[in-house]
Amino acid sequence: MASGVDEWRRHLKGCAAHLQAQKWNGSSKGIVKSCFWAFARIDVWAAFISRKTTLIPTNFWLDDMSIPSVATRGDIDDYCNLANLIFAEIVNFLATHGQDKGGHDSAYAASVSLLWQKLQDWRGYRPQEVKPLLRNPAASSKVFPVVLYSRSSSICGNTFYHSGSILLLQTGEVPLQAHNISSEPNSPVWHARELGGISISNPSHANWVNQAQPLYIAGTVFTPSGGALTLWTHDSINRQDVQSQVDLSVQRGSTINSLAGDDASLETWEGEERYAAEKVLLLKQLVRIERETGWKTSDRAVDLRLLWGMG
């Protein structure tokens, strides 16, 4: 996973072919099921990074894709895996049709609306164990909310939910009336702050290795454009100079002053730039994940620095 995405997609292709040949999917039993979902999470993030579709089509992933049905069965892991599936459907849709605002036909808007409704249905049908055990909204002294979960799978499922919501909102095609209970799900900033809060509040290494991309997605919201043109339309950029700074900071065990600024400079920056605190905390969390787990996140830290003009 530390190698380029094209290289690890090459290795995934053999796994994908074997799983499909054996008809093993997320509804299989025992260790096969666990292996499938481990593969699926890697597959979807590889697809997201490369802006391609998943190697295994999403219609193969589960025998029963009904949100109410899976919720009724009461298996928490199965329910949380549904969020992974819906996110994969979003990634595949955007890889095929793009994410640019404007210029889309009614079929595009209808597809976005359908995917959005799936996400909100997933949120609405969540069993109690999938909801936060404790949630403290962000106060003036805290940028991100405290969001604690009792289960690792709940962290994963809600992370996919917020990530997918941001991607759909960035298309500009989500109907505002699609969720009339609360305005929060219609706000990309709310979803981005939830992602930051979930990652920081739950020091779960098993989940942290899946959070480099969600934190990057959150970071794209904290730009003037809201990141709509960032994820699916720009070409790769040369990041060598910034990457060397990030790698050096990680190797030295730095408090990432060179990446994000210390607490004193943060106060000054907050008065000068919108979302400055959010940006700093996201960078700090990415470095923390790499330092504690060994899972490389510095590529995404570099991408965010360049996106925010901090290179």
TrEMBL record:
Entry's Gene Ontology molecular function annotations: DNA-binding transcription factor activity; transcription cis-regulatory region binding
Entry keyword annotation includes Nucleus: yes
InterPro entries associated with the record: Fun_TF
Pfam families the UniProt entry points to: Fungal_trans_2 (PF11951)
Localization per record: Nucleus
Coiled coil start-end: none
GO annotation terms (biological process): positive regulation of transcription by RNA polymerase II
The entry's keywords: Nucleus
GO cellular component, one term: nucleus
Entry annotated with the keyword Ribonucleoprotein: no
Domain of life: Eukaryota
Major subcellular location class: nucleus
Protein name (Swiss-Prot/TrEMBL): Uncharacterized protein
Protein's organism: Aspergillus versicolor CBS 583.65
